[in-house]
Design brief:
Helix content: 25-40%
Strand order of the largest sheet: 1-3-2
CATH architecture: 2-Layer Sandwich
Structural class: alpha+beta
Shape: globular
Amino acid sequence: MTYTLGLPDITREGAGAVEQQLRGRNEIDYVDVDQSTETATVTTNLSYGEVRDLIQQLGVAAN
């Protein structure tokens, strides 16, 4: 599945942390964090909630 998650008020550091966290997971096939649109596009076999939780563990708001 491919999900697009909103990342309100994401900083450059936060975007880098999200990309690093998700790219380090075997379950993640693709990740792109776009700071200008405040979104993350993720292709994975994880559920939407699991991806959101991974991002939120970094202290980044995701919806």
